[in-house]
UniProtKB/TrEMBL annotation:
SUPFAM superfamilies: 4Fe-4S ferredoxins (SSF54862). This is 4Fe-4S ferredoxin-type domain-containing protein. Keywords: 4Fe-4S, Iron, Iron-sulfur, Metal-binding. Pfam families: Fer4_11 (PF13247), Fer4_4 (PF12800). It comes from the Bacteria. One of its GO terms (molecular function) is 4 iron, 4 sulfur cluster binding. PANTHER family: PROTEIN NRFC, PROTEIN NRFC HOMOLOG. It comes from Candidatus Desantisbacteria bacterium CG_4_10_14_0_8_um_filter_48_22. InterPro entries: 4Fe4S_Fe-S-bd, 4Fe4S_Fe_S_CS, ET_IronSulfur_Cluster-Binding.
């Protein structure tokens, strides 16, 4: 089993502000965890609607479905208007993960080749990020996103109706 980045979106989404450090080489000030949270949410939380109102609501065609029906966002086309956030009937697209600025993450490939761990892991004060050997687990709501990332996200549950007295 190979080492992977593990993101617990349940912890990550409750953080007051993301303070992790990112070593993405091509632009300083990048917060690559934002991009990973977006990918994790689109892969683990998205309800994969048949008509995908988030995709059809985007005035710039920034959202597309891939061959596995997962939603992907083009950072070049997205203007951060949040039409997709408003259109999602399940509330699974979060405004803080659809910023106007585009962040990138290379999962610290260079650092990993040298035997280190991604820069974001030791700088997360809430324990939402880990690096190691992890397995998928339906019981623990952990799913692979790509080959090098594992995401934990609780499934969406329809709220029970409120009974009127």
């Amino acid at each position: 089993m190979s080492k992977r980045l593990y993101i617990d979106l349940e912890i990550c989404n409750k953080c007051p502000e993301c303070v992790v450090k990112c070593s993405y080489l091509y632009h300083p000030g990048n917060n690559g965890i934002t991009r990973l949270r977006e990918e994790g949410a689109f892969n683990a939380i998205c309800r994969l609607c048949d008509n995908a109102p988030c995709v059809t609501s985007c005035p710039n065609d920034a959202l597309k479905r891939d061959e596995k029906r997962f939603i992907t966002r083009s950072g070049f086309k997205c203007t951060g208007c949040h039409s997709c956030v408003a259109a999602c009937p399940f509330g699974t697209i979060f405004t803080e993960t659809i910023p106007f600025t585009n962040s990138q993450c290379d999962l610290c490939i260079k650092i990993l080749k040298e035997g280190g761990e991604p820069a974001c892991v030791p700088t997360c004060p809430y324990g939402a990020l880990k690096f190691g050997e992890f397995a998928e687990s339906a019981e623990e709501f952990k799913v692979f996103v790509g080959e090098r990332m594992l995401v934990r996200a609780l499934p969406w549950k329809k709220p029970l109706p409120v009974k009127k007295k």
